[in-house]
Amino acid sequence: MRELAGRVAVVTGAASGIGNGLAHRWAREGMRVVLADIEEEALAKAAAELSAGGAEVLAVPVDVSKAEQLEMLADRTYEAFGAAHILCNNAGVGAGGLISDLRIEDWQWTLGVNMWGVIHGLTAFLPRMLQGGEEGHIVNTASLAGLVAAPFMAPYNAGKFAVVAISESLFHELSMTGSQIKVSVLCPGWVNTRIFESERNRPAALGGGGDHAPDARAQMLRGVLEAGLQPAEVADQVFDAVANERLYVITHPDMLPAVEARMRAILDGTNPALTMIV
Ligand code: NAI
């Protein structure tokens, strides 16, 4: 999809990091942008920044783990702008630890946002986008952790593998039906965002609400992230993938040998080598 000006982009997790980078990128192309996020204050600030730059913006507080909130987001989008052309299912959180130590709430929270958030986005928007009969593009944010499974990140890995699988299935379905809607799956390595502070958005019912001060692991992650790509650079790569209808968006090709080694082990019938992501 190359004609973007005047069209409508919807971005979840738009108040920070990669989602915010995507929102700015679409606005720069002259798109009308719907920003969705659970963090209301940051969302209002992000919307004000984009409006000040001249963009036409709609900001909607949304928890992507709730199906009805994505339906509400789609209703609000179509009421305001009459269409959705680019949908970025991007909101995500990170929780980790040894599987033997994890609580059920860790799995529920992580999969609720990272996997169900994408499913809810597709369920609410895709039928309306198809019915609209116009060109469109879905961008699902997975991760390198959707292609190779490191230890201490099982809920995150599980959700991201699911997002890659859903995106590949969708790619085939859209291709087989000759649809004008295309799909990309974004698989970044390290990007300089606030994901190491994901706990700030964990609901109390799922174990949140305690001390949000990043622990030693989160501090280490922060250092790695700060040395990563900037969200704007990732957004440029997504823009290119949308323009060229490319499914996989691999922002860190230097990390692909880990993916190759995993595939090789499957083909050779050997056990996987240890891949440490952090
Ligand atoms: P971030 O923490 O800076 O931004 C995530 C945004 O999602 C925040 O604005 C947050 O408020 C929002 N959010 C969290 N829970 C939500 C919910 N239930 N409903 C709606 N919004 C919610 O982190 P970042 O890195 O920008 O994360 C964006 C995506 O990129 C995530 O899916 C993450 O897993 C993925 N990713 C990030 C990488 C990195 O190195 N930063 C690497 C690979 C993937």
Word description of this protein:
The structure is a single chain. With 278 residues, the chain is an alpha/beta fold. Helices cover 46% and strands 13% of the residues. The protein has helices at residues 17-28, 40-52, 67-81, 104-114, 116-132, 154-176, 216-226, 231-243, 256-268; strands spanning 8-12, 32-37, 57-61, 86-89, 136-141, 181-187, 248-250. It has a 7-stranded parallel sheet with strand order 3-2-1-4-5-6-7, with helices on both faces. The longest helix has 23 residues, at 154-176. The two termini are 36 Å apart. 1,4-dihydronicotinamide adenine dinucleotide is lined by residues 12-13, 15-19, 37-39, 42, 62-65, 90-93, 113-114, 141, 143, 188, 190-191, 193-195, 198, 201, 225, 228.
Secondary structure: elements and pairs:
Elements: E1 8-12, H1 17-28, E2 32-37, H2 40-52, E3 57-61, H3 67-81, E4 86-89, H4 104-114, H5 116-132, E5 136-141, H6 154-176, E6 181-187, H7 216-226, H8 231-243, E7 248-250, H9 256-268
Parallel strand pairs: 1-2, 1-4, 2-3, 4-5, 5-6, 6-7
Helix pairs in contact: 1-8, 3-5, 4-6
Bound molecules: 1,4-dihydronicotinamide adenine dinucleotide.
